[in-house]
């Protein structure tokens, strides 16, 4: 089920996606790259009406990332301009060449001429525009340079231009040996709008504006689309470079903290988080914005973030101590917002010890009272999640989520809308309503396009999307659409690489789907090899799958010991869904050991739990197992009666394998009941059983379940023989023989296995 607690992390660095870097001490300076931009702006003003509307529009869209971004090589800049206007790119190159190959006075004259852009009644550039502010900053920075600094700038410009000339010469030599068509292709927009390249940032120390832009972009990408951010090692390297020039740059420490969380580095993340709040206090940034409360505010939020960090890594005792410190400071300062964040985390910590929704209900009420819709909604989501596990009715949970959705739409909390839909998908899956789960999953996918979009406009790489896509892949696999499931998993791997924080979700689902396919195909050695991977991601699932493999390999005593240990553990942690599945597996072990009467109490216990916790699908599956027990005990008529009650949910919402097993069981019960019928009625019952076997065969073929197919063909051949249909019998016998030679025989009687 979707986790709703990750969003409780307080992020004082982000406000509407903007990083507040007010303490960065490096001023803005003139560089050769910025001089190339100044030449571009100058040529753009000279071109005037000669430029077409489309070309001007392209250039205007290009200018903003160029002005905000870091310095880049001249060849890349020229290529970007050529995509918009080839003629203008040539003019910029000629102008730079004249300046670089001329004298120092040419550069002096160029900066003198820049001031003319603001003169006249209708100036080319307005002083307060983005371009105007950039020009004024550059003119001011140039005028403050000493003569020696001006000479160094001119030398740097020459080297900048000569480096590009050498590269062009090398490219021309390569083109003589290479097909020109292979070197073609346009620069994609993402190359400029996307994340910064490592070689770009490494050109030199960033100015204040460039640092702010870099941190803002990377922080937003880490939150919304981690795959587009720099790799953890590269990002940390650039942050270290920033901190080398200014160790008191608090926001760089916070981004370092977020980056360390990506790779689960508890030491580095704790170190960076403490440095962030230390620098925030030392620089006085908080005091300037919050008055005398700034110092205390930093301390209490530092303790709160430290508690959240420890809780994330499972250090609950340390998290509780940090949280107590945050609560104490917040109470002294009468900070109700911080106290509500603390109350939310207190519930999470208490949840590890005992189930209590009192704290959570109190948190929701207080958050609504103090006008904190985000926290209130997260509280409602957590409350719904807890009550879903407690077995509350689905209609009451959906009513609660509807109230939560009203808060989302009222306050435009788009991220929480996604979480709510993912939560609904998981709840319907828990209750066994796959059709409703599929509908909710498609709702979320249709709300946010999976195409590449601007960061902040749509969030399509969040945990909610990972959860929904994983459920969608599993739903397709259950219905036998393995190719579609593979495509979904492939898409998940692209959007959430193995080093991303949500990758474990699809890894687990991928392993589970592979495991089910191997079990269906009778390749138990392959399934056994997958158990280790599942156990690493989810220990409970791994132990359960290991027991299933042992059971399939007829290692009954080992499987029984494993299931008994798992049952005790799941009862202790109150994992009701797994308790029921374990009980069903134990009952099957008793069947295979011919202890049919011992299996009945186990099944009745599972049925009571399934009905108590409103797990309809598991209840239906348990009833099918009870019907099988009654068939074994010689009362097939009673088995048929209870089958009619349970088979409808299975056919409506069940996996293809479960549908096939249910129809196979119906056919077995029909054949067993027909023994006491009149000859005519017996023939009708056997023909009806053959039709049900055909349907079961279709289901088993869809999921490539060869063992079950073999059993169905054997059963059909016997029925056709009884009815005197020799041709059909021979066909089934031939198919049975082919499968029987392909599959190993374990010597277990056909009637002693339900699934």
From TrEMBL:
UniProt function note? Component of the anaphase promoting complex/cyclosome (APC/C), a cell cycle-regulated E3 ubiquitin ligase that controls progression through mitosis and the G1 phase of the cell cycle. The APC/C complex acts by mediating ubiquitination and subsequent degradation of target proteins: it mainly mediates the formation of 'Lys-11'-linked polyubiquitin chains and, to a lower extent, the formation of 'Lys-48'- and 'Lys-63'-linked polyubiquitin chains. The APC/C complex catalyzes assembly of branched 'Lys-11'-/'Lys-48'-linked branched ubiquitin chains on target proteins.
**Subcellular localization, as worded in the UniProt entry:** Cytoplasm, Cytoskeleton, Spindle; Nucleus
Q: In which pathway does it act?
A: Protein modification; protein ubiquitination
Q: Which GO terms describe its cellular component?
A: anaphase-promoting complex; spindle
Q: Which domain of life is it from?
A: Eukaryota
Gene transcribed to yield this protein: Anapc5
GO biological process terms on file: anaphase-promoting complex-dependent catabolic process; cell division; positive regulation of mitotic metaphase/anaphase transition; protein K11-linked ubiquitination
Provide the Anaphase-promoting complex subunit 5 N-terminal domain boundaries. Answer: 30-167
Entry keyword set: Cell cycle, Cell division, Cytoplasm, Cytoskeleton, Mitosis, Nucleus, Phosphoprotein, Repeat, TPR repeat, Ubl conjugation pathway
Give the primary localization class: cytoplasm
Identify this protein by name.
Answer: Anaphase-promoting complex subunit 5
